[in-house]
Amino acid sequence: MLALLVLLLAASSAPAQVLRVYSEFSRIGPHGEIVDLDRGGPPREILSPAIPRNAWSTFQIVINLPAGKRYTLHVGQNPTDAVRVRIYRPVQQQFGNRTLPDRLEPVALPVEGRSEGPAVYWMDLWADATAPAQRIKVEPEVLVDGEWITYPMEVRVSEAVAPETGRLMVNPPPPDKPSDTGALAILRTRLCDSRNMGKPALTEPKTVRDLILRNVSQDIALAASPEVLWRIAGATDRRAWCAAVPTPRPPGSQGPEWYLRARDRLVQGR
Q1: Residues 90 and 102 sit within 8 Å (Cβ to Cβ)
Q2: Residue 130 gets which letter from DSSP?
Q3: Can you tell me the mean pLDDT for 245-265?
Q4: Could you tell me which residues come within 8 angstroms of residue 203 by beta carbon, excluding any fewer than 6 positions away?
Q5: In terms of residue numbers, what domain contains 252?
Q6: In terms of domains, do 223 and 190 share one?
C-alpha cells in the first residue's frame, strides 16, 4: 500500500511533457487540457500519421513550459520542404460557460514566444498531388534555454490523392459542439441528402471548425463508393440513421477521435 502511495505521489508531481502533438479532434483548452466536449477515451498518440496527397492534414502542437520562459518554435523536415507548412495560433473564446479555441490567427515560422501557460499552435501540412509516397520527418522543435526539444514524428505520405471533385461542404456547426459534429454532418449529407453535394472553396480557414470541415471534405472525396461511407457510419438501419438527430456516431465510439479510424480507412482505400 505504501509503495502504491509513493508511485501515485511521484506521478502527480511529475513535470508535464514539454512538447506534445494532438489531432484536430481533441481541441485544447486554455489550461492545456482537452476540452470536455472532445473527451472520450485516451487521445491518440500522434507519432506516424498517414496523410493523403493533394490535401491538408492538421495537428495541434502543445508547448508546456514554466511561466516566463522564452521559446522558439520551429518545424523540421527531412527531406527539406517535403510538405508545405502553415502555422496558426488558436484564440480562446467564451461560448456560454465554456472557453474554447475557435478563431485562427496565422503566424510565421519560426514562432517566438514567452510562456504564460500552455501554448497551442495548429500545424497545417500540405502534400502536393505529385509528392512521392514515402516516410518523411516532420518534427516540431522548441528551442528553450539554448537546448532543443523535439517531438519525433514520422509522417507517411500515402499513395492516396484526394480528388478535386466529390468534396462536400456544409455549414459549420456551433463552436460549443463536439469537434466531430461537422464530420458527422458531412457524412450524413453525403449519404442521406445528395442534393446538397458540392465542391467547397479551399480558402484560408478562419476558425477551427472551418479547418476540420475542410479536412473531412477531402477525406470524403477519397471514398470509392457510398458503401464505404456506410460501413464507416456503422448504420444497420440506414433510414433510422438518416432520420436521427443528432447524427449518431458509429457503435463503440469513445469521443470525437473515432473519426481518425474512419480517415485511416479512407486514406488506405479500405
Answers
A1: yes
A2: T
A3: 96
A4: none
A5: 181-267
A6: yes
